[in-house]
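Hi R.,

As promised on Friday, here is the backbone we talked about, encoded as structure tokens. Could you run it through your design pipeline when you get a chance and send me back a sequence?
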């Protein structure tokens, strides 16, 4: 923790400081369904570049939102998972998903499509 004072106009700004941007919420959302490896993220988020993914993961690890688990094996294996603190974002992320579903229906109707479907009924986004 830093000693200098940091002033926010609202607490929403503090939340966005950690998980704001185009890709961090998407990365975090996918992690609410379990550990992920680099290649899995690239498949789940096809529009993200490797460079941006690496940067976003680094920042989320630095901020204590996710853990980077490195296995000592050949070939190298690295996984990412939410920290206990990161899990506190699950309700926010799933609420954003539900809101987005409604927005897609309202704006695009039958022309809107969401490619990602949660892994199973036990992982339903109902919180």
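Update: got your reply. Pasting your designed sequence below so it's all in one thread:
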């Amino acid at each position: 923790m830093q000693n200098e004072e940091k002033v926010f106009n609202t607490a929403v700004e503090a939340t966005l400081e950690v998980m704001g941007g185009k890709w961090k919420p998407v990365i975090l959302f996918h992690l609410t369904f379990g550990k992920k490896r680099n290649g899995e993220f690239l498949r789940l988020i096809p529009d993200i570049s490797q460079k941006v993914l690496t940067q976003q993961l680094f920042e989320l690890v630095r901020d204590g939102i996710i853990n980077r688990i490195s296995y000592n094996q050949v070939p190298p294996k690295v996984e990412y998972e939410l920290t206990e603190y990161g899990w506190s974002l699950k309700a926010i992320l799933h609420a954003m998903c539900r809101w987005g579903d409604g927005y897609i229906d309202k704006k695009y109707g039958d022309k809107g499509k969401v490619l990602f479907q949660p892994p199973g009924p036990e992982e339903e986004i109902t919180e």
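One thing I noticed while checking it: The chain has a mean pLDDT of 91.

Thanks again,
M.
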